Amino acid sequence: MGIITKSDLYYNDYSWTAIKRDDPRVSGEPDSTLLSRKEGYEVLYFINKFSEIHNFKNKDSAIKVEKMIRNEVPSDIRSQSNIKIWIEQNWNKSKF
Length: 96
Hints:
Layout: H1 40-53, H2 59-71, H3 80-90
């Protein structure tokens, strides 16, 4: 289980389309798969995977990832791996 669940997410306007557990959008490591920023299952997976990679222990850090995805990551950065890199490079510059 990840650091946060659906009910912990800061934003509540996500779409929750059923996705198979082995779908690359919600399994494995962040890769070249595109992240749909309005699809709850994809965002939740990404946040929890990012939190696991960086050994986050509190929900505030996970929510910061969510807010950065929604508000700060440039819209032309779309793959999970590139979003991961952007967040890592801009973590300390974030307003959240």
